[in-house]
Fold:
Amino acid sequence: MATAEKYVGGGVPRKEDPKLITGQGQFLEGLTLPGMLHAALVRSPHGSARINSVDVSAAAAAEGVVAAYSGADLADEWAAGLPMAWPVTDDIRIPDHWPVAQDVARYVGDAVAVVVATSRNAALDAAELVEVDYDVLEAVVDVEAAVADGAPRVHESFDDNKSYTWALTNGEVDEAFAKADVVVKERYTQPRLIPNAMEPRAVVAQPVPSTGDFTVWSTTQIPHVAKVLFALTLGIPESQIRVIAPSDVGGGFGSKLNVYAEEALCIALARRLGKPVKWVAGRSEGYLATIHGRDQVQEIEIAATSDGDILGYRVHILAAMGAYLQLVAPGVPLLGAFLYCGCYGGEAYHFECTGVFTNTTPTDAYRGAGRPEATYAIERAIDSLAREVGVDPAEIRRRNFLPAGDMVQSPGGLAFDSADYEPALDRALELLDYDGFRGDQAERREGGGSRQIGVGFSSYVEICGLAPSQVLASLKYAAGGWDAATVRMLPTGKAEVVTGSSPHGQGHVTSWSQIAADALGIPYEDVTVLHGDTHVAPHGMNTYGSRSLAVAGVAVHNACDRVVDKARGLAAHLLEVAPEDLEYEAGTFSVKGVPDRTKSMPELAFAAWTAHSLPEDSEPGLEASCVYDPPNFTFPFGTHVAVVEVDTETGAVDLVRYIAVDDCGPVINPVIVDGQVHGGVAQGIAAALYEEATYAEDGTLETSSMVNYLVPSAAEFPSFETDRTVTPSTSNPMGVKGIGEAGTIGSAPAVINAIVDALSHLGVTDVPMPASPERVWRAIQAANGGEA
Amino acid sequence: MKRISVTVNGVRHEADVEPRTLLVHFIREQLELTGTNVGCDTSSCGACTILMNGQSAKSCTVLAVQADGAEVTTVEGLVSNGDWHPVQKAFHEQHGLQCGFCTPGMMMAAVGYLDENPSPTEDEVRLALEGNLCRCTGYHNIVKAVLAAADDMGS
Structure:
């Protein structure tokens, strides 16, 4: 079908912007309902503590307070504990996870009581009056300490702190290692990260007591998934729950891809009290009560020939789950499990991961979820291999790239569509002026000054477009991977696109409008996109894992095709010709050979609405739906390059240049895609250089606010240089892949490799993340034989 | 309760406030101007930045009573006679926002800064916005937008 690309591929200014830049954004904190009450939670200050008693009487008597409850008081509200939807093995240990702890508090921040009052301040003030008697227990916060013999147990009901072990083997791994000339063995830590979406989480639950209906507004990425899980957790018929992600949700990065205690709690309180109940997280409260990301210890071994040709991989991971299993936490390492061989070849592959309980805030999917960790390990380790065999780091990548082609078999077990890794590396080297850089670097080294420069590469491939539902089933994921769209022509020639995606900054309203406007041949301004309200958009699997365009966007595209098909029948009927005698272009059907006999999409929309004259087998209206279940993942790839200047006296790192060459297939809106890359890269650089959540041994979160957890500002970054190669995916009719996480996946190893490269002449081979000046300085001292 | 008089976006408001009320809460809850967001509780993120007597200020670090007699401009006051401020235009044209939560504060910080330094360098813009955090954009297009706005305002 001919579709004129008038909007797709262009940097159309976003439809989302006007209200957001004029202060008319509809963020949830601004929502007020008549009679609304406010909840404040009392949280455990202990990493592990038995709850002997909770006395809410003083709080309940305080001014403005309507009710105060302990976990035990609320126990009969729950039809089930908070949900975990990815039991990755048959023998996974899944602990009970109640919205308010009933017997033991297992991390600092675990809720132990709740106060409901007529104002937020009254609730917060009264929460201070709740008396909790604890027996403080020994905590364990470190993932390796938690699996050591005799470690304190996070859950007494389990023999140890291991939740599951998941393994994958392809090929003859021992054989590959036995015949290798070279084996490099590396150990890396992935610091625990706090996602820090700028909008703190919030929820409002409104009951209709006479009918038992509930409307729940939540700052969520997953309104449709949440609706199902709220029903199961609270024992409310799903048909009586409406979930609304407000039209503006202020960022997510995975932190709003969950079903949280406070969401379930507000619904339960609304049910009990018959009034709307609202909860808004303070930032510091969110640091305790919103999922964290990463927190893994990785061991990776690469077997290779003396030329640096990779033969095999062995990977062992310890992944911190935190105190409970949040929604998809056990599966996060699995999203990386197939990628510890990156975009490289080899004949054998072994991956094993153990999920571990610690007395910490639960972890879950944070931007990239498993893939940044995998990419970091392989991209650091391949540099190590390059040093070991004396091959240039760009060259060793090129030497080991999987061949270009479609459905190229990776040692990890997956077949990658649209593989063509060299052009992105070449383009990155060209932008860098690699030879020129090495010349400058040699000069600096000869000069012997304290400011040395280094370059780091990261050639990544990742997995997006989650996902074929049957593949998810094989990985024991409890939901499907499809998404849905309805496209509806309105009588006046405008179009409504109803999408199952739930945007929170990605610009779906703009991109989906571009897709629909081109397919329907109507102005971009005439397309409205409806999302995020389960009563308006009844079907969706929502927004995470860079899946929106490659699944929900394709659903929009396919639904538009179906609308055009239906319109063709109507046009043929009205023009009194056969459908195959019509040509379609840019919203107009014309009779072949008689170009002035036409029907435009707006004319057909009106005719379909009046229904005065329809084809015999046709119904009034002009709309179509598509539920798209992708046949495969998509596999975006690219090469990122970081250039750093390191002060060898102070350890300070200055990121001088950052080049990202990505391949996400055809681009709907290049400005939005670049923006996704910029933001993703910044989060990866932040992980490499600045961010780390740390716990004291007793379970206290030391980085407990934005004051001591360094979210970098504009002053910490350079401008980024972005470019693209375009290799269409063969997995969907648009060829699109996804770009939301690529920047985060590619960037951290490029930065650390650059720091190591800058210091390699001093003998430095590793600097842990985040590469603070102190850590860099210590690495230099250790390489010099001094004290580290 | 203390009686204060504050002019916000050109409109004078007389109001009774609790002495502990922060200016941002006064703006959001009493004046119902919800464009100014609250992103943290440690004066770190800058989402609540407004102009007070022409200078940018984090409205979570100011008590409402301290704003007694002051002229305050919030994001809602940037539009003049129906026209977007050059900083608003530039944020739109340069894709300087994604989720938009930090945007009101970021723009107000930019407006305040460009008043002090109408033709800044890129590095100066980056330093000037140090008190305003964004998690979506990597700041790349925010910086471009502020530089574009400076050009626009200077021409």
